[in-house]
Amino acid sequence: MEYPSKLIEDAVNEVSKLPGIGKKTALRLVLHLVKENENRTRALTEALNKLRANIRFCKTCFTISDEAECVICGSHRRDRSTVCVVEESNDVMAIENTAQYNGVYHVLGGVISPMNGIGPSELKIEHLLQRIAQTKNEIKEVILALSPTLEGDTTAFYINRKLKALPIKVTSIARGVPVGGNLEYTDEITLGRSITGRVVFD
Amino acid sequence: MEYPSKLIEDAVNEVSKLPGIGKKTALRLVLHLVKENENRTRALTEALNKLRANIRFCKTCFTISDEAECVICGSHRRDRSTVCVVEESNDVMAIENTAQYNGVYHVLGGVISPMNGIGPSELKIEHLLQRIAQTKNEIKEVILALSPTLEGDTTAFYINRKLKALPIKVTSIARGVPVGGNLEYTDEITLGRSITGRVVFD
Fold it and tell me: Which H or E run includes B84?
């Protein structure tokens, strides 16, 4: 596409580098900013720059945080004996939103993916083992809440093997037919797993 | 949703003000920036700030431009006797991309929409009339290329009435079944118009 302005072209190029945003969407967003008041663009870019410059990660669980320790790790009301292992900070937010979990977290920063050159050492797996060792026998259970993909399963398998020797219960979040899901439209792998992993009706 | 960081919350709020971007998409984009190198965020925000601060509109056709006059109005190879009237600058880009048009443009900056408080005076309609008057008898045809909506049709009707007294041919872009479109899946209004507006087969 040809742009009538180099400024538009540069802005579209930058915006379309964001995931899931193509050139057409980028152009729509950029033209929206041009039509709006200049303060809007300034507020947007300031928020992003401030975020990127000041963002920190919790020293214990590696989730995104404003302080050296995140709100969850710092809270006295959380159960420190259960650690939920997730891929990214947004998984923490998603689980927090369910209001069903009162333990603490550990953010790996990704999953093992040889295709993308990500091995165990690129992730916070060693930090998890250190954390378990440092807190002595405080941690009783590790919940693996990773994506049900090949990479997620590989990572779960790897962590499970590392924790096997320790007196820790390793669990995984339940896989099955989603609530509100229709059996007819559930893919066969999920449906198959929901049968092999069936639970006692109560 | 609760965010683990005020910085994330502020950034998500700003990003989700963009059209078509909800809180979840905004969070995904913001977390992407956090994961990437800080230079990426700086390049993005710089491009947007530069754009917003320096963007100008062509003094003749009001399309987005880096200079006082846009590339199209400044070109000697464009046919100045035909003016295509569009709503926004992105319509200019869309028509330019077809490589089927060699005339010049006039960007209205919107369409008449009483619901949104936009009357003819908010648009560049008066400027179009002035432009026609100033160029004397240079402009022979005005093509109305507005959206096939109630607002677009109202605006086209309004402009047509204003131009009636002048020795100018007023045309509208063809409405009909899109190329590659299937009659079966074409809505009845479009199909109906394509029948009443049928053209001689050649």
Answer: strand B79-86
